[in-house]
Each structure stands twice: as C-alpha cells, then as structure tokens.
Amino acid sequence: MNNITMTLQADHLILEALKEDISSEDVSTNAVMREAVPGEVDLICKQDGVIAGLEVFRRVFELLDGKTETEFYCKDGDTVKSGQLMGRVRGDIRVLLSGERTALNYLQRMSGIATYTRSVAELLKGTKTKLLDTRKTTPNMRIFEKYAVRVGGGYNHRYNLSDGVLLKDNHIGAAGGVAQAVKMAREYAPFVRRIEVEVENLDMVREAVEAGADIIMLDNMSGEEMKEAVRIIGGRAQIECSGNVTRENIARLTELGVDYISSGALTHSAPILDISMKHLHSI
After folding, report:
1. How far, in whole angstroms, is CA 256 from its chain's centroid?
2. Which of 37, 47, 149, 151 has the greatest number of CB atoms lying within 10 Å of its CB?
3. Catalytic amino acids?
4. pLDDT digits (tens, 9 = 90+) for 218-239
5. Whole-structure pTM over 0.85, yes or no?
6. Residue 168 assigned to a binding site
7. Is 217 exposed, middle or buried (0-12, 13-18, 19+ CB in 10 A)?
8. pLDDT tens digits, residue range 164-217?
C-alpha cells in the first residue's frame, strides 16, 4: 500500500481498530510504565508463509506516535520462515505495548490470506486462468484483505457494489429473467462497465450469451455442465467459474480453460500466519 492509499482509505480504519482496543487507556501498560522510556522490540515470524501488511503494521505505531521508527528486513510478497527476524520497532515503550495487538492482528490476518492465496495460485500456473477474490470479506477489512490477495498472486474481482455490474440470481429474479436483466443493465450502467451474469444451468447460459453478457459466471455447476457451457459460449463472452472453490477442489476446474476462477475462501477461510513481537527492552 502506498502513502496516499494509507492516508485516504486505511488510516481511519486503523484508528477505529485502535479505539476498539483502547477505549480510554491501556491500564496494564500505564501501570508498569509511568513515563516515556525509549525501547526496541523484534518482529519475528513463527510459521513459514508469505508476508503481507508490513506498512499497515508500521502505520499502527505511527498513528499512536509519529516518532516511532520501524525497520523491516523483508517486504510484502516475500516468503518468510519460522524463526525469521523480519524487523524491529523502536519508540516509546508505552506505544510499542499499546499498539502490539492491533498491529499484529493486521499483519497476521493479511499474511495468512497472502499465504493461502499463493498456495492456490500455484495450482493455476501454466494456465490462462486468473484467480479472483470475492466480496466475502470481513467488514471494515476489505481494503486490507483484497490487498493481501494481490500480494499472494491473486487478482481482485470488483471492490464493491459501485465498482461493476454483476447480475446474480436475485437480480435476475427481480428483473424477470436473464435477458431482461442484461437489457436493463445496458440501459442504466455507464458504457464503460462490463456486464457479468451469474448462471446456474445451461438454459441460463444460452440466455446470457444471446443477451450479450460480457462475462458469464458459472456458479455451482457440475464438471460436465461447465464443459458444455464453455462449448455453448464459444468465445462470445469471458467465463468465470465460482462456487465453494478451495485449494482442495480447484483441480477440477483447471482444465476447463476458463478466464477466471473466483474463490471466497481466499478471504473468509485463510488461517492467520503466526507472528510475534518479542524481546522488548529499553534502549
């Protein structure tokens, strides 16, 4: 994340996370540290994985005290090993203690997503298919989680509801059918917007093609249905496969030759990467 993104879109979220953890004061820290004492603490990885969120980690401490200094020995996207010293944070010991949990929560969560995404993306190497995330993100964590997907080698689907047209089953039901939904979207949406339609059976695939959908999402279809859908579409639209896609079952989709595979599991099911701050001492 660059400084502009951090300032405009992330800082207020980080501040809310800090306020959640410190409603009035950090009683434990204030009990043992009555005044400012300069200190240093190590950032140590306790599990092999892919690191993501270092600048967010840094920013937590900077928002508590702009004089805090963080030095990293790796960068986002690097593979890290258990026991690796990844950086050091220097500043008022009270700040290091009070910001520790929030900073680690971000770094562990984002690194876990990057690690899981990397493991899934590796399974698509050698194919034309791109791995996409979804909007199945933790509330108020989307900007961080979608960034972590990119760090792990995945791609972002639309960021939010304002970002693109995706006509799902309930949109289609509300409009009265696939053709009508696509027609209404063409009339309403800016011409620069592509129109994606979610389909659940081969009849809907045919309707979406005839209606001129730009992208057709094959949702929770069987392997045979997806193969037939690809044949029916015949290059007239881009194809996305979706529906309970995980690292364990993505292999069934890799030979279809589709443009995209989307997986909510990248953000909602990735375990955290174990990371700690250790060896705090005064300097």
Report:
1. 25
2. 149
3. 101, 136, 168, 198, 219
4. 999 999 999 999 999 999 999 9
5. yes
6. yes
7. buried
8. 999 999 999 999 999 999 999 999 998 888 999 999 999 999 999 999 999 999
- C-beta pairs of 68-75 under 8 Å, 24+ apart in sequence: 68/92, 68/95, 68/96, 72/43, 75/51
Flag whether 3 is marked binding. Answer: no
pLDDT at position 51 is 98
Exposure string (b/e) for 60-76, b if CB count within 10 Å is 16 or more? bbbbbeeebebebebeb
What confidence tier does 268 reach under pLDDT thresholds 50, 70, 90?
very high
User: What is the pLDDT, as a whole number, of residue 175?
Assistant: 98
In contact, 195 and 213? CB cutoff 8 Å: yes
Average pLDDT, the chain: 96
Do the annotations mark residue 11 as ligand-binding? no
- At 267, list the tokens: 């953000």
112 labelled binding-site residue: no
Q: Would you give the end-to-end CA distance of the chain in angstroms?
A: 30
The conformational region for residue 264 under phi > 0 = left, psi -120 to 50 = alpha, else beta, is alpha
134 annotated as belonging to a binding site for a ligand: yes
Q: Please state at what angle helix 202-211 crosses helix 178-188, rounded to 10 degrees.
A: 30
Q: Are 145 and 267 in contact (CB under 8 A)?
A: yes
263 annotated binding-site participant: yes
The two structure tokens encoding residue 231: 């044949």
Q: Is 282 helix (H, G, I), strand (E, B) or coil?
A: strand
